[in-house]
TrEMBL record:
It comes from Candidatus Neptunichlamydia vexilliferae. It comes from the Bacteria. This is Integrase.
């Protein structure tokens, strides 16, 4: 969804602030001196976002969960327990792009985590499941904040 905001400057000029925001994508903005340029930019940007040709989308499609796990193992010192948690998440989310890992997907995997037995044949408890989720949360936070 795009919209244009008009602003009158002190020198008498008018600037047009165009903004496009789609769910799941960052807000994109640009400034123009002509309203028609702003409208064209909004149309072009919305079309690129829908078709997946925008540079932000192209960059996000390069990073897979497997790449994030590998980098995490190289750069972080982690315990054996967390390593096991990450191996389970890697098995489940290996082929997904980071951009495609959404709360609904994590919720599905959480249910699977709670219902499938471990290698020893024991069901995982809720607190164990929370620890798995905390490990995943830490990995995803690092991906978003530090590694971009």
């Amino acid at each position: 969804m795009g919209y244009i905001r008009e602003k009158d400057l002190r020198d008498g000029c008018t600037r047009y602030y165009a903004e496009v925001q789609f769910k799941g994508f960052p807000r994109l903005t640009a400034t123009f001196s002509r309203k028609t340029d702003a409208k064209l930019w909004i149309q072009k940007t919305e079309n690129e976002l829908r078709c997946g040709r925008n540079q932000l989308i192209a960059d996000s499609r390069k990073r897979t969960f497997k790449n994030a796990i590998d980098r995490y193992f190289k750069e972080q010192s982690i315990s054996v327990v967390k390593r096991g948690h990450l191996r389970w998440w890697e098995k489940e989310l290996d082929h997904y792009y980071l951009k495609d890992i959404r709360p609904c997907l994590i919720s599905q995997k959480k249910q699977k985590l709670l219902t499938e037995p471990t290698e020893k044949g024991v069901m995982r408890s809720g607190s164990t499941c929370n620890r798995y989720l905390a490990t995943l949360s830490h990995l995803m936070s690092l991906c978003e904040k530090q590694w971009e």
